[in-house]
Amino acid sequence: MRSILLPLALAGALLMGCAKQITEKDLHGSWSGKITLTEADIEAVKKQGMTQQQVDQTKSMVDNMTVSLNLKEDGKFDMTMGAPMEGSWTFADMKVNLTVEKAMGMSIEDIKKMAPPGTPVTDKISVTVAADGKTMTGTNGPGQGTVSFSKSS
Length: 153
Known about the structure:
Layout: H1 2-18, H2 24-27, E1 29-36, H3 39-47, H4 52-63, E2 67-71, E3 76-81, E4 84-92, E5 95-103, E6 106-107, H5 108-114, E7 124-129, E8 135-139, E9 146-151
Antiparallel strand pairs: 1-2, 1-9, 2-3, 3-4, 4-5, 5-6, 5-7, 7-8, 8-9
């Protein structure tokens, strides 16, 4: 029995060693995305005081939203998620961390000042990269949905 297990363990170790490690360079380029709102997200926005009509409008807007992301080699990104955004990004532990610095041409600080009280303004987005490096998924908290990206180029 021991003589069978050793070759199997070695074969498994070799296969694992051959798996491609995702690097920052693999992530450069264009990604297309989609935001999905769960029932928990919808309940969270209702608790923030939205009427059913506002919830329905928000859900419709999100369902029809085009999301695109371009991760640049210089550590910067451009993203459209209902509005144009830009900022910086890092990659570590199979996570891409986006820091939004501008949205709609305004600094994130100015956006926060203009937002109605209690309105969440997200300036940090973190997505987990799949083992094959072709998809990324993340959430940003209750009521903000799940964002999923697929590699375009």
